[in-house]
Specification:
By secondary structure, the chain is of the alpha/beta class. The protein folds into two domains: about 170 residues, Medium-chain alcohol dehydrogenases, catalytic domain (Quinone Oxidoreductase, Chain A, domain 1, Alpha-Beta Complex); about 100 residues, Rossmann fold. It is about 25% helix and about 30% strand. The strands form three sheets. Strands 3, 5, 6, 7, 8, 15 and 16 form a seven-stranded mixed beta sheet that branches. Strands 11-10-9-12-13-14 form a six-stranded parallel beta sheet. The relative contact order is 0.16. The model has no long low-confidence stretch (mean pLDDT about 95). GO terms for molecular function: oxidoreductase activity. Pfam families: ADH_N, ADH_zinc_N_2. This is NADPH:quinone reductase.
Amino acid sequence: MFAVQFDSPGYIDVLQVRNIPVPSPGEGEVLIALEASAINPADVKIRSGMITPQGSAPFTLGYDLVGTVKQTGPNAGRFLPGDRVIGASTSAVTGNGTWSEFVCLPETSLARAPENVDSAILAQLPLPGLTAMQAVDALQLTPGADVLVAGAAGAVGRIALQLLHLRGYRAHALVRRAEQAESLPTGVAEEVHIGSLPVSRVDAVIDTAGIDLSAALRPGGHYVTVVPGSPPHSVSPESATLVITRESGAMLHALAELLAAGELDLPGSTTFTFSEIEAAHHEYDRQLGRRITLVV
């Protein structure tokens, strides 16, 4: 089977499409034939060495997965061969990347794929959706609270903004450029701030961009970040939460239901095949955050 791998971190040209053996599912695992995945910022950071790859070389990249179950391992009974699923592998922690023709994942990390949703759209959901949902869950605030999302036009921020709105929070968006503001889902943000923090302070912030938002936070407010190395030192540990995304089929199921019901909007993406992996990464860098989908 093919797999996108690298031996040592570096520039885009370290990536190679190789032929490797098909894995066998272990206890509680499922073997999935890959349909589509996506490029996430963490993939670029692992490839470049900003995040240290887990395990030993060669390393396989990839977090997101849309595919079809081919085989189940011992004591894996949630899915049957032929079932279409979505999943996320937290490869920065596990070392188990999804950019290969066949992928083994725990069945607890999978959810059934909603019908009539294209693979290129579904591939944008797993990692950003899980990260956004876990960040919103960490707020522990009552509905009606004001929450600022930094990086609201990014994959995680966009979903977080929508989840906040669905749960009854007053969501505020922070973006860098005017064109990003225009790309946000309509009707979910109370206010959109371009390039500067709001004048009025908020009850909580969700930082998906790795910037200092402490000046926007009310005394006693909650600072949630998904970026390692933050929040700033001015925020007390009791008021801060760093979200390290964990795999969860149950959360993916909830996100997939929202997507199928039309309550969650995902943007269009540019699609490449895995044989075009270098071109896909160059386009990802050039488009500065526009979603790139990889298909078999």
